[in-house]
Amino acid sequence: MRIELTVNGERREADDVWEGESLLYALRERLGLPGSKNACEQGECGSCTVYMDGAPVCSCLVAAGQAQGREVTTVEGLAGDDGLDPVQQAFVECGAVQCGFCTPGFLVSTHDLLARNPSPSDPEIREALAGNLCRCTGYEKILDAVRAAASAGAQS
Fold first, then answer.
1. Which pLDDT does position 136 carry in this prediction?
2. pLDDT category, 153, cuts 50, 70, 90?
3. Whole-number Å distance between alpha carbons of 104 and 62
4. Whole-angstrom Cα distance, residue 141 to residue 1?
């Protein structure tokens, strides 16, 4: 089947999508957007988090066909013409990126948090990021990056 959707503000089509194919697979393999990562394929790790119609979803759990006519924003779509999104910049500056596998999900989740709550408390940050797992950083630098992005007024 063919799906038509808007990805990062651009109308896109994917052909030969099979019935059980995930949105994550379609984004990575059919549309050439490798930013979202395939880690658990069970919605447990958050590495594949994208926005669909403005709400964060685990793209490994969304059937590609469900994205028909919808708007999807991936981690690649957070950056603007003038460079990285402030959330992305904060992660770089705070050293919150190590292997990078979990980073796309943390970025989208942080972006969503700051859009809803521009000045979150530490417990609110931890709750918002609870669906994202990291095996490298120990989370402290990630929390520092979220705090830095919030201080810089990174909400969108």
1. 87
2. confident
3. 17
4. 43
The alpha helices in 35-121, defined as continuous H runs, are 86-93, 103-116
**Cα separation, 95 vs 145, whole angstroms:** 8
Q: How would residue 115 be classed by pLDDT, with cut points 50, 70 and 90?
A: very high
* Burial of 2 per CB tally in 10 Å (0-12, 13-18, 19+): exposed
Q: What's the pLDDT band for 155 if we cut at 50, 70, 90?
A: low
Angle (nearest 5°) at CA 125 between 72 and 101: 55
The maximal CA–CA distance of the chain, rounded, in angstroms, is 45
Q: What span, in angstroms and rounded, lies between the C-alpha atoms of 18 and 1?
A: 6
**Residue 13 bridge partners (DSSP):** 4
**CA dist., res. 20 & res. 18, Å (int):** 6
Beta-carbon count within 10 A of 116 CB: 11
What residue type is 84 in one-letter code? L
* pTM exceeds 0.70 for this model: yes
